[in-house]
Amino acid sequence: MMFRKTAIIGLGLIGGSLAKALRKYDMCETIVGLDLCSETLDCAKKDNCIDEGYNELVQGIRDADLIVISVPVGKMNTVLVDVFKNAKKGAWILDACSVKERICKEAEILLQNRNDVVFIGGHPMAGSEKSGFVHSSSNLFENAPFLLVPNNIFLDDSSDFIQWLKLLKVRPIIMNGEDHDLKVGYISHLPHLISTAIINTISHNTVNPKDIMNLSGGGFKDTTRIAESDPNLWTDIYLNNRRLSQVLDAFIREMESLKELLANNDYQPLYNYLLEAKVFKSKCSIKENERRVNKCLAI
After folding, report:
1. Domains of the chain
2. How far apart are CA 30 and CA 22, in angstroms?
3. CB neighbours (10 Å) of residue 151?
4. C-alpha distances out from residue 131 to 149, 165, 229, 280, Å
5. In the predicted model, what is the mean pLDDT of the chain?
6. Using an 8 Å Cβ cutoff, are 181 and 104 in contact?
7. Which residues are in the Prephenate/arogenate dehydrogenase domain (predicted)?
8. Contact 80, 110 (CB under 8 A)
9. 155: exposed, middle or buried (C-beta count within 10 Å: 0-12, 13-18, 19+)?
């Protein structure tokens, strides 16, 4: 067992799911939950996914071998400073925020005075438009990529930490902070922006937007589901991903190209544009299905 005692700061959707998964797969002896909400701590204890619960950080992370920080991006800086200040010698610190470049640079500064701890930027690519411990699940991370940005430790597939993390049934992927924010900007942050923009396009530009929404089918609901996510959470994410403007510029160029194709009223170029997307998406889906089949065969 790599970590005897794990402390999780923030028992929301991600932190709560991690606590449940650690318990399910027996990945540590003691799980400590930290949350400002005492009711959340009580619920976690009743679910038997934490052994101890605290509202206060210093007491909660004391003697923890692994400290997981699962708080909103906007609160990350303050919590990170407190964790570095109070973590025991030899502790591992893992964050679970969805932006990495800024956080990992802040950690680099803190590591200058705490070279006796390990910091890894982490981002489980799993979630929901729902939030809070009540929606957490021990199965949330299964088959999901778990992105890692190691700061002061070398990681590869043979590393003990990677093998330990795989017990969660995740796919660890190692990258740097800039690469993370750009790629996650495309695959996670841009879809939320688009989903939000679609809803606001209807609500801002139509006479009876609710009547239009009542006409929606499954495709629209799937596309706009994440527009219901917590705006506080996403505002912090957008303001802290310095690569998002680059991603949004690329999307706007695609929209301008599509608008021109529609204006030209020419079947073949428009068809080719749509076909290009279909072929690329189908190839990606085939590779994903092959990966899942191979994983099942290996079990």
Report:
1. 5-175 (3.40.50.720), 181-265 (1.10.3660.10)
2. 10
3. 17
4. 25, 23, 8, 32
5. 93
6. no
7. 4-292
8. yes
9. middle
The segment with the largest mean pLDDT, out of 56-70, 219-233, 273-287, is: 56-70
For 19-47, letters b (16+ CB in 10 Å) and e give bbbbbeeebbeebbbbbeeeebbebbeee
Give 75's pLDDT tier (boundaries 50, 70, 90): very high
Tokens of 212: 């239009």
CB count within 10 Å of CB 121 equals 25
* Residue 176 β-bridge partners: none
**Tokens found for residue 244:** 């998002």
Q: CA–CA separation, 167 vs 25, rounded Å?
A: 7
Give the single-character DSSP code of 227. Answer: G
Q: Report the candidate in 54, 45, 1 with the shortest Cα–Cα distance to residue 20.
A: 45
